[in-house]
Amino acid sequence: MAVQIAEVPDTGAEPDRQAFKPDLERIEIELLLEGIFRHYGFDFRAYAYASIRRRLWKRIEEEKLPSMSALQERVLHEPAMMEKLLLDLSINVTAMFRDPSFYITFRQHVVPLLRTYPFIRIWHAGCSTGEEVYSMAMLLREEGLYDRSRIYATDINEVVLQRAKAGIFPLERMQEYTDNYMRAGGKRSFSEYYTAKYGGALFDQSLTKNVVFSQHNLVTDRSFSEFNVILCRNVLIYFDKTLQSKVHSLFYDSLAMFGVLVLGSKETLRFMSHEECYQQMAPPEKIFRKVR
Amino acid sequence: MPYSIVAIGTSWGGLSALTNLLGGLPEEFPIPIVVVQHRSKDSDRLLAQLLGDATPLKVCEVEDKDALCAGTVHVAPANYHILVESGHLSLTTEEPVRFSRPSIDVMFTSAADTYRSETIGIILTGANEDGASGLAHIVKRGGRALIQDPKTAEIPIMPEAAVQAVPTAEVLGLDDLAPRLLELSRGAAKVDRRTAV
Ligand SMILES: C[S@@+](CC[C@H](N)C(=O)[O-])C[C@H]1O[C@@H](n2cnc3c(N)ncnc32)[C@H](O)[C@@H]1O
Prior knowledge:
The structure holds 2 protein chains of 2 kinds. Chain A has helices at about 20-40, 50-60, 70-75, 80-90, 100-115, 130-140, 160-165, 175-185, 240-255, and strands spanning about 120-125, 150-155, 170, 195, 200-205, 210-215, 225-230, 255-265, 280, 285-290. Chain A is α/β, with parallel strands linked by helices. The longest helix of chain A has 19 residues, at about 20-40. Mean pLDDT of chain A is about 90; it is low at about 1-15. By secondary structure, chain B is α/β, with parallel strands linked by helices. Helices cover about 35% and strands about 20% of the residues of chain B. Chain B has helices at about 15-25, 45-55, 105-115, 130-140, 155-165, 175-185, 195; strands spanning about 5-10, 35, 60, 70-75, 80-85, 90, 120-125, 145-150, 170. In chain B, strands 3-4-2-1-7-8-9 form a 7-stranded parallel sheet, with helices on both faces. In chain B, strands 5-6 form a two-stranded antiparallel ribbon. In chain B, helix 3 (about 105-115) packs parallel to helix 4 (about 130-140) and helix 4 (about 130-140) runs parallel beside helix 5. The two termini of chain B are about 25 Å apart. Chains A and B meet through helix 2 of A and strand 5, strand 6, helix 3 and helix 4 of B. S-adenosylmethionine (SAM) binds near residues 155, 157 and 238 of chain A.
């Protein structure tokens, strides 16, 4: 049945420089990731394979390299190439009030719990450029909880953390965010939170008064405190199941009893070792309460 | 059984085409099916519900790392790309490809790279050209391509682009797709009827 294949024009996503040997390619990728870990300390070995592979091929094509092994040679010998690859491998797409229904539910079901605490500690793990953190800060302020909250916002990637600290976001996204904000149950006018400045939307600096941005790697770093709320949305999807499970142990250990864990809208705790330690608060939202 | 995955892509007009195609398959259809249907980024689980009502197969919207299952239609959620891995599906929020997330090309390409000649790709009605290069990739990896006859498509742009990219694909009327899939699932007719003549 493979007879007609050769006649098909190659419009595939990657160059067909040699016949596709998936097992060999897997070896090459594993060697590259092992090399990166041993030489630079970044551990991508247990990231979801299809996504990693796609990102690696992007870099190979952009550098016009012949193979995965050629990329390995460059990455291991040129720190600048490693820098580039780090940016490729971290997918930083994010938005303010992404999944508005989550924020509504958070207001309805989690805020009442938080009101009973004198002091609230929140961890945004994998916060990317910070849009989610600013969204949460607005919500807490509107609910009168901001002043007793401390938010730790972490990411593996220094570059996005710098952007998060600066608090300047693209003006052209403000329409979308305004829309999200309203659907997320926002109580004020979204435009009160920013001014057009420096070619972007500069957000109210008092929103980050109680925010600490810092680098933290979920794969290799340890728990650094105990929290009432941990949000980790659309980060674990880039990990394989074993690594997901490991990071869930970290979250479990970092969460106070009756604390709340928030995942992305298409993520689950199913088959995770800590599944039965949580109760889903308001399905289908992925808000889980630690109950044991 | 020579096939491990059926990958389907469609946009405009997709709901009724999918209803027709999936409605023609029996509950015990043995190959996992993955569907990318373009839709607005806020649309909810409604698509999976509607399809579930139209077919005896189990239909679910994909959550990260869901296992691929026989007798199941895995529908890509709005606003995520879907990547086919060995035995399961991963989600990613990478930037849209050709303005689409989910992208048919992304799903097809990963299916082809994972399951190679065990992949069947199907392009249905649609108003853009997403899926054409993904379908070519499936064929390049030794898989099989089926395309809804543009004449029977609500919007012919997507199937036409696919035919252009994959001239060797089997082009079938909407009503003939389910029977053909069944035939392929039985391992029958391994030789393409058109190239066999
Ligand atoms: C798609 S963004 C999610 C942003 C935000 N949470 C959201 O849902 O909109 C994924 C983020 O995870 C970060 N990340 C990836 N691997 C990580 C790791 N090992 N430790 C910490 N952060 C990581 C990436 O740098 C990226 O900023």
